[in-house]
Amino acid sequence: MKLQKPLAVGIDDFEKIITKGYYYYVDKTLLIKELLDKKGEVTLFTRPRHFGKTLSLSMLRYFFEATGDEEKRRHNRALFSGLVIERAGEDYLKEMGQYPVICVTLKSTKQRNYSEASACLKEALAEEFVRHEPRVVGRLLNLEDRDKYMRIRKRRGTDNEYLTSLAFLSRCLFEAYQKKCIILIDEYDVPLENAYYAGFYEQMSGLARSLFESALKSNPCPEFAVITGCLRISRESIFTGLNNLAILSIMSNDFDEYFGFVQDEVDAILEEYNLCNCQVSVKQWYDGYLFGKKEIYNPWSILCYVRDHVIDRETLPVPFWANTSSNSVVRDLVERLNDDEGELLRQLEYLMNGGTIEKAVHEDITYDSIYDSEDNLWNFLFFTGYLKKVSVCLAGEMPYVTLAIPNREVSYIYSNTIHHWFEKKQRGFCAKTESTVSSPTGKPALAGRILF
Questions:
Q1: Backbone angles phi, psi at 140, to 5 degrees
Q2: Cβ proximity of 310 and 270 under 8 Å
Q3: Alpha helix positions (H), 228-298
Q4: Mean of the pLDDT values across residues 160-186?
């Protein structure tokens, strides 16, 4: 019997997956070719959480990064041996190992106040200065630049120095390598989402605006930049005047297959682990997304499902993705039922019974405007993976999307949230009236009408 490879669930470092030699890897390296072909100066990819954004940026870093060390260069080149990018042609392979790379992830910037969140952000920036220190500091001719570099690297920089630290690092790298750099920023909107819910959005958005604009607007040092996040934040909010920004959301046809798994990839995984008899169940629970024109499965849930079924073939499907977040936006939607006159409730019921709704698409959203209108809230649910596109049409100059719940996993999130909401509402009602209202099944009346 063929030895089955463990699945890299939760591992988002490309080198670790490849060098361990036994992890199963879904090859997405043609993302490199497409980025080089399209030649975008600044590309923002927005996808739901746990759809492979961090792993993709890690892969880009190992492909493009110039290390200044011949042994490390050979090591990085070997990581791509046998992968599809190796067969793409010499024009692409000659780009391997040619650029200094700034790679910063902001996914851990989830603190309770601005002081702690900004300190965490500064720590992430300082770590990148530490990573580049051996190659850079000795090559900086300006003593003031050297001192500034070390202040940031040692977490002793001023607030203003951190505000422009990415731009400063790109300039230092150009001086050290005499080559333009590549900037990779992962989960750029996590600090903004956290700040909104924690109550310091204005402060954090000001910090992010200075950080990103100084690095990406009128900065001659980057060759190109790639940014990832869950939500497309409006240019006016964060990327003011950044005219070279290409935003590729789940509505875009470009790059539609590189985040999440397409059908052929899921079929190959199931065959690899002798689970072809699970195709129907997998499709019902974890398929259903439409990114651009590609049908997409939730990659996190697929990997978790296969991992559990290798251990126990009788394991039932469970909502893996639902357990990776607080799902606060769905909870907030349900809480609005208290203030709604019935239309929101009717739409939610209709969706949960397999129906569709049609909404205007507003891609430029700020976290502080999510709850300004019902349309904004539906759009937020769509772009973060809680609803899927069925079709799109133009009404005048405005695109309208027909929306549905993607699969049984996401349906569980809604039904579970509604169930808890009814329980809370019923407890409150009981406290006031010392009586209950329920359906004949014992469930709250509305829950009895929704197909769980």
A1: -80, 115
A2: no
A3: 263-272, 279-286
A4: 96
Residue 140 structure tokens: 């900086």
Kindly provide the b/e burial profile for residues 177-191, where b requires at least 16 CB atoms within 10 angstroms of the residue's own CB: beebbbbbbbbbbbb
| Dihedral sign (CA 194, 46, 80, 125) | negative
Whether the predicted pLDDT of 6 surpasses 70: yes
Is the backbone of residue 388 left (phi > 0), alpha (psi -120 to 50) or beta?
A: beta
What's the whole-number mean pLDDT along residues 352-370? 84
**Does residue 227 or residue 9 have the better pLDDT?**
227
Q: What are phi and psi of 208, to 5 degrees?
A: -65, -40
Rounded to 5°, angle at Cα 268 from 267 and 272: 120
Over 80: is that where the pLDDT of 326 sits? no
Report d(CA 5, CA 7) in Å as an integer.
Answer: 6
Question: How far is CA 121 from each of CA 149, 326, 328, 406, rounded to the nearest angstrom?
Answer: 17, 22, 23, 34
Residue type, 229: G
| Rounded distance between C-alpha atoms, residue 97 and residue 63, angstroms | 6
- Note the pLDDT tens digit of each residue in 246-261: 989 999 999 999 999 9
Distant-in-sequence, close-in-space partners of 85: CB < 8 Å, separation ≥ 6 = 29, 30, 32, 33, 63, 92, 93
In 3D space, the residue among 251, 310, 305 whose CA is nearest the CA of residue 282 turns out to be 305
Tokens at 240, concatenated: 């003011």
DSSP labels, 353-377: TT--EEEE----B-GGGTTSSHHHH
Residue with tokens 């072909």: 37
Beta bridge partners of 261: 297
Nearest to 196 by CA among 247, 233, 239: 233
Count of residues making up the chain: 452
C-alpha to C-alpha distance for 226 and 216, rounded to whole angstroms: 10
Model confidence at 429, pLDDT cuts 50, 70, 90, reads low
By CB neighbour count within 10 A (0-12 exposed, 13-18 middle, 19+ buried), where does 104 fall?
Answer: buried
pLDDT tier at 447, thresholds 50, 70, 90: very low
What are the residues whose beta carbons fall under 8 Å from the beta carbon of 411, sequence distance 6 or more?
Answer: 352, 405, 452
The β-bridge partners of 386 are: none
